[in-house]
Amino acid sequence: MRFRPCIDIHNGKVKQIVGGSLQDDNVRENFVAEQDAKFYAQLYRKSGISGGHIILLNPVTSPYYEKSRQQAIEALHAYPQGLQIGGSITDENAKEYLREGASHVIVTSYVFHDGQISYRNLEQIKNTVGKEHLVLDLSCRKKGNQYYIVTNRWQTFTNVAITPEILTELAAYCDEFLIHAVDAEGKSSGIEIELVKLLAQETTIPITYAGGVGSFEDLCLLKRYGRDHLDVTVGSALDLFGGPMKYTEVLKFS
C-alpha cells in the first residue's frame, strides 16, 4: 500500500472539502491552505512520493476556473511527471496537461456520460493520451445495496454500479483507477470497508482509495481489507491540511 498525496484546488486555493457538498461554487470547507499548489508539489517531490493527484474542483463555467487551473499548471511544473491531474478533462485538453508535466490525466464525466459508459469517448481518450497515461476516476456513492459511479462533481448518479466485472472491463482501457468513497470524503470518519473489499478483487492495475481515513487504525483496516493491494490518499486528516495524522508518520506507514 502506497501513500498517494493530493492537491485539491477550489477557487484558486488548495483546500480540503466535504466531498458530497460540492455543488456549483458552494462547498463545505475543512481546510483552506495559506500555501499554494506549487508549495505542496515541491514538498511531495522532496519527499520522493509520486502518483498523487491534482483535482480542479471548479467547473469550466466557473469564473474561478482559470485561477484554479493556473495553480495546477504551476504545481505540474514544480514536479514534472510526479503528479496526475483531473477535473473537466476531455480529449481536447488532455494532451495539454501531459505537455505541462502531468504523468496521467484523470477522467470521469467525459467517459461516464448521460448515466452510461460512453465507449466512444473512452476509446477516444485512450487513443488520445495512451492507456499508460489514463486514470479512470470511479468515485462512487452508495444507493440501495450497491455503489454507483457519480459524475458532475459527485452530484449525479450514473447507472454504472461498481462490480468486479466492470472493474475488469475498464482496467483494459487505463493505467490506474482513482476511487473516492464520496459520502465519507472529507469526514475522517472511517473507511467504507464494504467498498474496499469490493475494490480489492481487481488486482490487475493500481487502485487508489480515498475517503474517510481519519487515523492510523483506518490505514491498518485498509491494508487488511484491501489485501495490501489498494493505495491510499489521506486528505483532511493529514496535518498538512489541519488534521491529526502526521505527514511524516504516514510516509513511514506506507
Strand order of the largest sheet: 3-2-1-4-5-6-9-13-14-15
Beta content comes to 25-35%
Amino- and carboxy-terminal Cα gap: 6 Å
Q: Looking at this structure, what is the CATH superfamily?
A: Aldolase class I
Task: Estimate the helix proportion, in percent.
Answer: 25-40%
The global form is: globular
* Structural class by helix and strand composition: alpha/beta
* CATH architectural group: Alpha-Beta Barrel
Query: How many E strands?
Result: 15
Describe this protein's structure.
The protein has 254 residues and is an alpha/beta fold. It has one domain (6-253): TIM Barrel, CATH 3.20.20. 29% of the residues lie in helices and 25% in strands. It is built from eight helices and 15 strands. A ten-stranded mixed beta sheet has the order 3-2-1-4-5-6-9-13-14-15. The protein has a three-stranded antiparallel beta sheet with strand order 10-11-12, with no helix packed on it. Helix 1 packs parallel to helix 2. The longest helix is centred in the first third of the chain and has 14 residues, at 65-78. It is globular and about 40 Å long. The chain starts with 5 loop residues before the first strand and ends with a helix. 49% of the residues are buried. The model has no long low-confidence stretch (mean pLDDT 94).
